[in-house]
Specification:
This protein has 4 domains: 64 residues, no CATH class; 217 residues, Beta Barrel (Thrombin, subunit H), CATH 2.40.10; 208 residues, Alpha Horseshoe (Serine Threonine Protein Phosphatase 5, Tetratricopeptide repeat); 123 residues, Beta Barrel (Cathepsin D, subunit A, domain 1), CATH 2.40.70.10. It has 636 residues and is an alpha+beta fold. Helix 5 runs antiparallel to helix 6, helix 10 runs parallel beside helix 13 and helix 13 runs parallel beside helix 15. The strands form 5 sheets. Strands 3, 4, 5, 6, 7, 8, 9 and 16 form an 8-stranded mixed beta sheet that branches. Strands 18, 19, 20, 21, 22, 23 and 24 form a 7-stranded mixed beta sheet that branches. It is 33% helix and 22% strand.
Length: 636
């Protein structure tokens, strides 16, 4: 048969029916005492024994509290870290608070001074701030006041459009609305639904009396302190503090009159609106999100970091780029660490490097006119943008960027300038070489002169000046330039090859030298007809006469000079008949042959091409070195 139990009128703890004092709080249970025990003569003995026991306990407790400090009047529920993703990890200490599990302690745990101020048990839980992509961007402790209200620092709530509160492992409760105005550092927010939590009530701060901080971290009640008002913020009076306090509530006469938020937000915020029983909120969490976050650059940064649909690197870079075009809606102090632009610089630079490695250069090349590039101003990022521009738009565009919009960026760099200067030079060198290969000597000389004004001291550029002179068949200038300087070991082989070319050109003085691809049977050249038109020819020692296409006759306006009689011509496809015309001159590398007969033939599958036949070539002595790709014509 189970024993009969009675309940303590103070703490509602269960006790045996013959208990005189509560086994939990020590309060007398006279009302609950059975009649037979009250009338028992030896009750005095029991009472005396218990009093002696309690006295000894109090003495031991006094010395114990002197040694370890005051105990808790706060009920901290055990809270495990959320298993929701928090990415990327910022430098905010609010993301992973250090929680400790404690039980509910009553007035027996408080010092003698504290017993005079009755404090209700405080319910502390965890607030989770969730963004649009269901990522937890912040978590921090909060205490429930007046059953369902929470004072929350605004900067800790930024970035989330859904807020939840949870005590221990209990069910999460949405936070719906509250009292907050634009620019307020603290808002007073209410939990959704009818559930009420145990805790102290709220009242207006009496500025004349001291307050005590009940810490949510340690559960300790501080010594009394006097606070001085510094300003008004919405429903709160702000008071500055010489030293930061633990996160907690500030108490007067057992009621909450203010809050401190530790390292999240300095100072203390004191309540001005009286009891919290009749409060009605004026705005919603959605209003807070729109006012502080929506449409600002930080929202775009958050989207780029978390949204799965933007997981591809090029799209992620594009969203970052759009964000840098927008103004910030947050002050630097209120911006979460992981959304501060300077925290994102290394991440974006690595993102661009990854995109370059994938060969998606056009995504990077578009950054040349973006605020992102100017704001980050990282040498590695700038180098990748220049290289991408060269890949997509060519060397000249890359050089124009470095010397135009990018000039200020390069000059503002603290490091990496030497590498960018070297890249600048390499763009010039490659551009000039490409023009030489294309035979565009005039443009090559122009680019060289521009490069020389910046990089004249570099021997690689000086050797290109020698190549330009050789391309113009000016061996005298080439030789003079070549021997003006000393060259490092890595350039000596290039110097020797240029010296050989100069010697060869000397031997070809007063000769026409035609270079072509070694081993091929086709020798293309360009000759000027009648001092007016540049005609593409193929050297053909098997053709008796020069041939030109009919389109060239039209260009030169020679239709009325065509011979009336046609001449039979043997071709690979059999005999054909062609009209003849006399060209006033054919000029090749400065050598002019006058009054040259040409047959008008459109070669099959070779539109616009003519043949340079023997009636022109016989004016010269020919030296063909097919293995070297050189045809020399020496005037007879």
């Amino acid at each position: 048969m189970s024993e009969k139990r009675i309940f303590c009128p103070e703490c509602q703890s269960a006790n045996l029916d013959n208990s005189v004092y509560c086994c939990q709080c020590g309060s007398p249970i006279l009302d609950g005492m059975p009649e037979r025990i009250r009338k028992t003569p030896w009750i005095a003995v029991v009472v005396i024994a218990l009093l002696l026991s309690l006295a000894m306990t109090s003495i031991l407790h006094f010395f114990n509290t002197r040694r370890i400090g005051q105990q808790s009047a706060v009920h901290l529920e055990s809270v495990e870290p959320s298993d929701a993703a928090v990415w990327p990890q910022g430098d905010e200490k609010i993301l992973r608070p250090d929680w400790r599990e404690k039980g509910s302690l009553d007035s027996r745990s408080l010092s003698e001074e504290q017993v005079t101020e009755e404090i209700e048990q405080l319910t502390v839980g965890k607030v989770s701030i969730i963004n649009q992509d269901d990522f937890t961007v912040a978590e921090f402790p909060a205490a429930v006041i007046s059953g369902s209200w929470l004072a929350l620092p605004a900067r800790a709530c930024i970035g989330g459009d859904k807020w939840f509160f949870r005590v221990g492992n209990g069910k999460t409760i949405p936070i719906e609305g509250g009292l907050w105005g634009s620019g307020d550092s603290v808002g007073f927010w209410q939990l959704e639904g009818e559930k009420k939590f145990h805790g102290p009530d709220l009242t207006t701060w009496n500025q004349e009396n001291p307050v005590r901080l009940l810490s949510m971290e340690t559960g300790l009640l501080s010594e009394p302190m006097t606070l001085v008002p510094s300003g008004v913020q919405g429903a709160f009076i702000y008071t500055s503090l010489p030293d930061p306090l633990d996160p907690g509530v500030l108490m007067q006469n057992g009621k909450v009159v203010g809050w401190s938020f530790g390292e999240i937000l300095g100072g203390a915020y004191m309540w001005t609106l009286g009891s919290g029983t009749d409060l009605l909120y004026t705005n919603y969490v959605d209003d807070f999100y729109r006012e502080t976050f929506a449409g600002g650059r930080e929202e775009y940064f958050a989207i780029a970091l978390t949204r799965e649909s933007y997981s591809s690197a090029p799209r992620q870079l594009q969203v970052f780029t759009e964000g840098f075009r927008l103004p910030s809606k947050l002050t630097p102090e209120d911006t979460p660490g992981y959304l501060r632009a300077e925290s994102l610089y290394p991440y974006i630079s690595n993102l661009v490097k990854y995109i370059m490695n994938q060969g998606a250069y056009h995504y990077v090349a578009t950054l040349v006119e973006e605020p992102l590039l100017r704001e980050i101003n990282d040498p590695e990022l700038l180098t990748n943008v220049i290289l991408a521009t060269r890949k997509i738009y060519g060397n000249e565009s890359a050089v124009n960027f470095i010397e135009g919009p990018g000039a200020d960026l390069v000059s503002a760099l603290d490091e990496g300038k030497n590498e960018l200067d070297r890249l600048h030079l390499e763009l010039y060198l490659e551009g000039i070489k490409n023009l030489l290969d294309e035979g565009n000597i005039v443009r090559g000389r122009q680019v060289y002169n521009t490069a020389r004004s910046r990089f004249d001291e570099f021997p690689e550029l000086h050797l290109l000046a020698v190549e330009l002179a050789l391309a113009e068949r000016d061996w005298v200038e080439a030789e003079s330039l070549l021997y003006q300087r000393e060259y490092p070991i890595e350039l000596r082989e290039t110097r020797m090859l240029l010296a050989d070319r100069i010697s060869e050109l000397k031997g070809q003085d007063n000769k026409i030298v035609i270079r072509f691809e070694a081993g091929t049977r086709e020798i293309p050249i360009i000759a000027t007809l009648s001092d007016r038109f540049d005609q593409n020819f193929m050297v053909d020692t098997g053709a008796s006469f020069v041939t030109i296409p009919y389109s060239t006759v039209e260009t030169l306006g020679l239709e009325d000079r065509l011979s009336q009689q046609q001449q039979e011509v043997q071709t690979a496809g059999g005999p054909v008949y062609a009209n003849a015309v006399t060209l006033s001159s054919i000029e090749l590398q400065g050598w002019v042959v006058s009054d040259v007969k040409a047959l008008v033939i459109d070669l099959p599958n070779r539109p616009g091409l003519g043949l340079l036949g023997l009636n022109f070539l016989n004016r010269f002595r020919l030296d063909l070195q097919a293995e070297k790709g050189i045809l020399t014509l020496e005037p007879k």
